[in-house]
Amino acid sequence: MLYQSEMELEVRFYETDQMGIVHHSNYIRYFECGRGKMMDDLGLPVIRFEELGFIMPVSSVSCKYKTPARLGDKLRIVSTVEKEPMARVEVHTQIFNQNGDLVCEGDVVLGFLNKDTRRPIRAPKEFVDAFSKAVSGSK
Predict the structure, then answer these.
(1) Which domains are seen in the chain, by residue range?
(2) Is the pLDDT of residue 2 over 90?
């Protein structure tokens, strides 16, 4: 593991179906919550990243469901980056319930674009620097 970020989230009523089970589409939203927390932890919140002139579109998502999450569950979302970002960044996410059971896991691949031109770019220096600083443990 190169870098890891964690957050907790409680399952809300509107995220569930009539049986009180989280609808499958919400796990992708949980992945996004984890990525947002990761960006905050890197010291580069998404809004700041966009102010610098960059955006990170999702190019692919995969999710493997293991056991259902239910209304009121307290989920731990663990977002991990295994490889240094270059032209893209790959984030592996695992979601665990309050009992430590793996609820689901998946991967999200994001690219980097210039916000104004919408043209692909390599990982911006600001992102690489924030990532390197976090990995090295320096403040």
Answers:
(1) 3-136 (3.10.129.10)
(2) no
